[in-house]
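Practice problem 4.
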C-alpha cells in the first residue's frame, strides 16, 4: 500500500517496539509494564514556493504509535514542538515484548481506538492539503523487542533507543530556470512575464502505511500505493485537466509574477520554484477528454507542470499582449523523490488556454533550403 523519496531524516529516540510486519507476533507471557522508550525521528538528511524558502526537513509535530505483537495499538504519544531541523526525540512508556512503531510527522493529531489494528492506521489516507513547503507530512516505521526497565533491579537502566528515519509522502518538483529565446522570430524583443505556475492532474491522497522499515537512511521504503479503483476516482485528484477555481492545495500553485528580462537565450532566467504532489504511479499516460458531469469518464494520467505567461509585442500581438500556456509532462511521481527541472527552453508562443488536456506536443523542424535551378529556358528572337 505505500512508498518513499530521498531526503535524510535523522531518527531521534522514540518508542520501544518490535516487529512491524502485518503478521501478528506471538506475545511472550508475563509482560512487564510501563517500559520507557526513547524514539528518535528525523527526515532523510540534507514554501511559499520559492526553493530557497522551503523547509522540507522541518519537524513541527510528532505522533508515535506503538503496536504490540498482535499488531494492535498499545499506546501512542503526540506532541507539538518548536520547529526543529531533521531530528527530534520523545520518550514513551510501553510494555515489554515485540513492538511495531510508527512515527507520524507534521500531521494533525490522530485519536486512535484501543486495540486498533495496525492495518487500520496504515489504511488511513493523508490529503495533499495537509502539506506546506515548511511542514511536509512524513512517516517512518521500525520494530523493536522491548526489554524490562526496572530501576530497582538495575539502577543504571535507561530507556531503549529506537531510530526511525521518516519519509516525505510527497514528491518535490523543482524548476531552476526558464530560457526564453525569441531570437530570429517575429517575437524578438517581446516582453515575457510568468503570471503563475502550477501542477495539474495531481493525485491528492496517499496512505500513511509504509511497505517496509525505515531504520536506515535512504532506504527504498515507500507508502503503499492507491488501489486501482482509488487511483481512478477523480475525487482523489486535484487540478484535473486544468487549475481548479478553488480548493487546490497551496503546494501545487505558485501565483508569484516573475518578469523574465532575457528573451534572447543565453543562460536563461532564474526562477527557482518548487511544487509538491503525492505519488502518481500512472504508467500509461492519457490525454482523454473528461466531462465533470460524468466522473466515471476520468482516466488516470500523468501529472503536468504548467507555466502561464503573458507575452507582449505591439507590432506582432494585438492589444496589450496575450496569455499563453506551456504544458510539460512529468514522469511517474514517487514519494520522497525530487524531480529537478534544470531548465525549460521556450522559443514560441504556447497554447491559447489550458482548458483541455490535449496531446499538444513540441516538435522540431530542420528545413534544408537549396536554390533550385531555373525551371527552363525559352529562346526568343526579335526582328524589327
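Answer key:
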Amino acid at each position: 500500500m505505500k512508498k518513499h523519496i530521498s531526503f535524510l531524516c535523522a531518527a531521534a529516540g522514540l518508542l520501544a517496539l518490535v516487529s512491524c510486519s502485518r503478521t501478528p507476533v506471538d506475545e511472550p507471557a508475563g509482560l512487564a509494564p510501563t517500559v520507557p522508550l526513547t524514539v528518535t525521528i528525523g527526515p532523510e538528511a540534507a514554501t511559499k514556493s520559492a526553493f530557497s524558502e522551503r523547509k522540507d526537513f522541518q519537524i513541527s509535530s510528532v505522533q508515535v504509535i506503538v503496536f504490540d505483537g498482535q499488531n494492535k495499538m498499545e499506546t501512542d504519544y503526540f506532541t507539538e514542538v518548536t520547529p526543529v531541523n531533521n531530528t527530534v526525540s520523545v520518550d514513551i512508556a510501553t510494555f515489554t515484548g515485540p513492538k511495531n512503531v510508527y512515527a507520524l510527522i507534521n500531521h494533525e493529531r490522530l485519536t486512535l481506538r484501543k486495540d486498533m489494528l495496525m492495518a487500520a492506521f496504515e489504511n488511513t489516507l493523508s490529503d495533499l492539503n495537509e502539506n506546506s513547503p515548511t511542514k511536509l507530512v512524513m512517516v517512518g516505521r521500525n520494530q523493536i523487542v522491548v526489554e524490562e526497565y526496572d530501576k530497582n533491579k538495575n539502577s543504571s537502566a535507561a530507556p531503549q533507543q529506537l531510530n526511525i528515519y521518516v519519509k516525505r509522502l510527497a514528491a518535490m518538483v523543482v524548476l531552476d530556470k526558464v530560457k526564453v529565446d525569441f531570437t530570429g522570430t517575429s517575437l524578438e524583443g517581446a516582453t515575457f512575464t510568468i503570471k503563475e505556475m502550477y501542477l495539474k492532474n495531481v493525485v491528492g491522497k496517499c496512505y500513511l502505511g509504509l511497505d517496509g522499515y525505515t531504520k536506515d537512511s535512504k532506504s527504498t521504503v515507500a507508502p503503499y500505493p492507491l488501489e486501482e479503483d482509488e487511483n481512478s476516482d477523480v475525487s482523489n485528484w486535484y487540478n484535473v485537466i486544468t487549475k481548479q477555481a478553488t480548493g487546490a492545495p497551496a503546494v501545487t500553485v505558485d501565483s508569484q509574477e516573475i518578469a523574465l528580462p532575457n528573451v534572447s537565450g543565453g543562460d536563461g532566467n532564474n526562477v527557482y520554484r518548487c511544487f509538491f504532489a503525492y505519488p502518481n504511479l500512472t504508467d500509461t499516460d492519457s490525454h482523454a477528454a473528461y466531462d465533470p458531469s460524468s466522473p466515471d469518464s476520468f482516466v488516470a494520467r500523468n501529472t503536468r507542470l504548467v507555466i502561464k505567461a503573458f507575452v507582449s509585442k505591439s507590432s506582432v500581438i494585438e492589444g496589450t499582449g496575450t496569455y499563453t500556456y506551456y504544458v510539460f509532462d512529468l514522469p511517474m511521481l514517487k514519494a520522497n523523490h525530487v524531480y529537478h527541472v534544470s531548465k525549460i527552453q521556450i522559443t514560441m508562443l504556447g497554447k491559447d488556454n489550458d482548458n483541455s488536456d490535449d496531446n499538444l506536443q513540441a516538435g522540431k523542424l530542420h528545413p534544408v533550403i537549396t536554390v533550385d535551378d531555373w525551371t527552363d529556358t525559352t529562346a526568343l528572337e526579335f526582328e524589327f
